[in-house]
Amino acid sequence: MTHHALSAVLAGARLLPVLTVPSVASAGPLAEALATGGARCAEVTFRTPQAEQVVKVMAAHGGLTVGAGTVLTTEQAERAVAAGARFLVSPGFDIEVVDKGRELGVPVVPGAATATELMHALKAGLDTVKLFPAEPLGGIGTLRALAAPFPQMGFVPTGGIGPEQMSAYLAHPAVLAVGGSWLATRAHLERGAYDEIRRLTAEAVERTAP
Ligand code: 3PG
User: Fold this and answer.
1) For residue 3, what pLDDT is reported?
2) The pTM is what?
3) Which amino acids bring their CB within 6 angstroms of ligand 1?
């Protein structure tokens, strides 16, 4: 497989927990639950005002490579990287965010849902995209069809994926990792269900084994 900038950062991790964290107080116990469950990376979405602080706390835990998700602007990209984000994920393709990530020296993984968006990503010199929203788009069948004309591209499918769907994606050679929020939902965090987060993570990590 070709070398992907994101793979270097993820260091072979194939499960990317996508987190929307409602309070900074959750960040430490959440990092601990994910890491003890066997996760090695996490994406903190910039959908809450405290996302930056959450990145900071989770990165300081030391057991996870932490990135930022839902990065829509260059300003968010700057704040995320300053807080300790080692990669940036966007739901769609924005060349300014891509260029900012490059300037900051971190991999940027834009969302792509069509062949045209994949061509934009390729033209921008990218080697990895997030197939988003993977399940509503048609799941593994759509990934297979979109990956075929872009043999150089790596994919991180995300959106609607749960434990039942993940193995089919991971079996595709173009898939670096699968992303999903089912491991630690807002509801889990609101009720402090860290044991459940650890158990769901451990079960999912188990499914990433070849
Ligand atoms: C994301 O931003 O990557 C998605 O919201 C995660 O998708 P999921 O919530 O369906 O797992």
Assistant:
1) 52
2) 0.96
3) 18, 45, 69-70, 91, 158-161, 179-182
